[in-house]
Amino acid sequence: MTMNILRFEDEKFLEQLFHSIDKLKGTWRPGEPPLIRGWLPYVGMALKLQKNPLGFIKSLQKQHGDTFTVLLGGKYITFILDPFQYHLLLKSHKHLSFRQFGSKIVEKAFGIKSLASNADLDDELHTCYQLLQGKSLDILLESMMQNLRQVLEHKLSKTTSWDMAQMLTFCSSIMFEVTFITLYGKVIADDRKDYISKLRDDFIKLDDKFPYLMSNIPIELLGDVKTVQKRLIKCLTSENLAKLQGWSEIVQMRQNILEKYLVREDFEIGAHHLAFLWASVANTIPVMFWALYYLLRHPKAMAAVRDEIDHLRQSTGQKKGSGFSIYFTREQMDSLVYLESTILEVFRLCSLSSTVRTVQEDLALNSETGDYCVRKGDLVAIFPAVLHKDPEVFEAPEEFRYDRFTEDGKKKTTFFKGEKKLKFYLMPFGFGASKCPGRFFAVTEIKQLLIVLLTCFDLEIVDNKPIALNYSRLLFGIQYPDSDVLFRYKIKS
Ligand code: HEM
């Protein structure tokens, strides 16, 4: 009997049967959240999750409430879905480790071996993250703007005729190159374009296999992924990075720390750079895609965003037609409320980021709305995508509304569930100790790129087919579309 010929009643019956067995065997103990482990040993419910993670978790929420434990690929994960209980992860942070879970992921995905055993190295690398904020961020953004100009140069030189492109390919090509040279410096060799496109193609190949890299399938069984991973790491060793010109402050500082701890381990240094490079572009690419896609599909949104950019340009004395010389500071970009709201709406619709911690010892999580026990070695996760689509918080949650995060022409930061004000209502960047340190960089980079594209180009969508999320990232980050979309662009006359 296969899973798809099991009827709903059969599944319910099996679930009850398993629950009774679990009770007898002690797999489920009183005080623990409901346990859902399906009838496939080890795999548990992983196949159902893979098909549609959000739909699957929501269906379990309907049956079992806001907290339950699911067996997924050999791991028991307790999901906490009530946003008023998210803080339990912070409250119990001493017993819930990010490092243990994180170091396993980076080992598999990027070949990093040194983090699990070297907490000092990890701590020192974390000190670099201050260079993604404040004055250092302003310096990065100035360099990013110049790099954007360089990357788009050849597109700008083709004056009046329309050019056709696939939107995701277009966004990933620009985003990858601009981010790479802003952080790691310029390629000075004659084959600059060739070097970047090979790096990007390998990066995309590795990223494509990300869900499999997260699973327990040995990397050797994933086709040529191991070879691609090695090739990328090699490109990013100290020896090869030395050939690039103009490293950012953060890359320089990371390099100094890595050299201090990893003497004569250049391949391991390259693996650390690969992880950082992945973190810096893997999510901004799909956000850029979805933002452009939604703006092109919603003319009212496009008009509102273009209008506020035009106003800012005029009020800062930048003439119409000044094209690429347009420049806004971070504060000025922050005043573009519809642009920001569009990006936040993309996060709400497309982010499936979860925050996962490993339980260090048997633990009781106590809150006003319920107490439950979790076991040493299991995982605890919050999955805010459920909150992002909660109709009690966001009206018509499936709709794209560009002004959802604005109120009376200003930013809206107050959201309620029932009568209660939410402390957390939008969480694409994770939570607590592992919250994304690149969040300011990411949002400003996306704003900069959108401002330039909307100001310098006429853009039109060609394909009118509906697209959806492809869920290949499972519970990690921003989801890609299930297909690319044809569009055309030309320089504004
Ligand atoms: C829209 C874009 C982005 C999204 C949605 C995003 C999301 C996230 C999330 C959810 C985490 C936490 C993972 C966890 O808790 O397990 C994270 C971590 C991280 N992100 Fe981002 N990120 C983005 C852009 C960036 C950028 C541009 C950079 C660097 C320039 C960056 C650097 C990092 C790093 C280094 C970590 C690991 C932090 C640690 O070691 O504790 N991210 N990101």
UniProtKB/TrEMBL annotation:
Keyword 4Fe-4S: no
Cofactor(s) needed by this chain: heme
Localisation: Endoplasmic reticulum membrane; Microsome membrane
InterPro entries membership: CYP450_sterol_14alpha_dmase (IPR050529), Cyt_P450 (IPR001128), Cyt_P450_CYP7A1-type (IPR024204), Cyt_P450_E_grp-IV (IPR002403), Cyt_P450_sf (IPR036396)
Keyword annotations from UniProtKB, A to Z: Endoplasmic reticulum, Heme, Iron, Lipid metabolism, Membrane, Metal-binding, Microsome, Oxidoreductase, Steroid metabolism, Transmembrane, Transmembrane helix
Signal peptide (residue range): none
Main localization (coarse): endoplasmic reticulum
Keyword Ribonucleoprotein annotated: no
Pfam families: p450
Pathways per UniProt: Lipid metabolism; bile acid biosynthesis
Domain of life: Eukaryota
Membrane-spanning intervals of the chain: 275-296
Family: Belongs to the cytochrome P450 family.
Protein name: 25-hydroxycholesterol 7-alpha-hydroxylase
Species in which this protein is naturally found: Galeopterus variegatus (Malayan flying lemur)
Gene behind this protein: LOC103608506
